[in-house]
Design a protein that fits this description.
- By secondary structure, this protein is mostly helical.
- It has two domains: 336 residues, MFS general substrate transporter like domains (Growth Hormone, Chain: A, Up-down Bundle); 56 residues.
- Helix content is 78%, strand content 2%.
- It is built from 15 helices and two strands.
- It has a two-stranded antiparallel sheet with strand order 1-2.
- Helix 4 packs antiparallel against helix 14.
- The chain is globular and about 65 Å long.
- 47% of the residues are buried.
Length: 404
Amino acid sequence: MPVAGRLADIRGKKPVLIACAALLMLGSLICALSTSLLPVLAGRVLQGLSMGYIPVAISFVRDIAPQRMKNAAIAAISATLGVGGALGLPIAAWLAEEFDWHVLFALPTALGVIVVALSAFALPHRAPEHAARLDLIGALGLAAGVVLVLVGVSKGNDWGWTSLLTLGCIAGGILVLIGWGAYELRHDDPLVDLRATARRPVLLTNIAAVLIGFGMMAQSIVVPQLLELPDSLDHGLGQSMLAAGLWMAPGGLMMLAFSPVSSRLLTALGGRRTLAIGALVLAVGYVFALFLMSSPWELMVASCIACAGVGIGYAAMPSLVMENSPSDEAGAAVGLNALMRSMGTTIAGAVMAIVLTSTTMSVGGAQLPTEAAFQLCFMIGAVAALAGAGVTLLIRRSSSVADN
């Protein structure tokens, strides 16, 4: 995401958007045609590279939207993340249950073709105002450090948290990132301007992104498992994969419904307060989930509340970052913020896995999470969201550097 953002700052937003959409299409096509694991992994890597589309699209708002419409545009683009998830969950579940798994990748291949065409013919091109070049060594260093850390975190529960492989990945990634940071500080044209990133508003917004990303992913992991748990258990709801996707779909649509609300809050209260409100609403959703676990519709209500908070927060984060970043670094800054959010979701996956596998009960020879494990997950999600709100409130409004 930061690499795509920096390329957009250097080459212009439109070419990078087209390239990201093409990577989505190509990666999906490779997976759809694959019959073994390695090509699928290669296709998934290309799909992952296409995720740079999102922060670049958000930063594009600064170039093409009138001032009076920028908040609404940012909120709308951020809301599409929820809409995609809302539609993707039940559709993917239906395809997985009714068809061959290759169809799961054939659909995004077709969608990728549409996105490439729309990006090429519907978007205007704005040439960058500042000449620069891509910091290839910085890009490779950031990729290596982040991948090592996230692989160690995401696989720690399988490999063992005290295993040499887990500790080696995490420690090695941290060392690489420290070296990367030292290199970036000495570079004349770095991939990420760490001095700008260290400004209090941007730094605290990125920390909040980790916490709110954690809060968002926690419910995305826990709620489906609770819905699909056998109803022979007191806390199991016995839903099929398709039914679970349908119960969760309204939460994603709630993000779209709250897009106008996010826009009005950004205009009336600014990014700091809007982000804090989003985090608080997310925490309230988890508190509701603690007491609404006995039926699918109750979990749907709690999920809708949590997703409303996510929708509000996701619109505020890029606004805060762009407000406090130079215009020629907006893409990279928003990309780094998106990366921080993704790191929060990865950490959430690891933490939720630890909790759900540490308190289990034996059912038919299988170890399944207890009700207390799910409740603890909801409490952790609430604490993370509240911490995100607290960090956000520490941000102090600074003079805009957007045009510096």
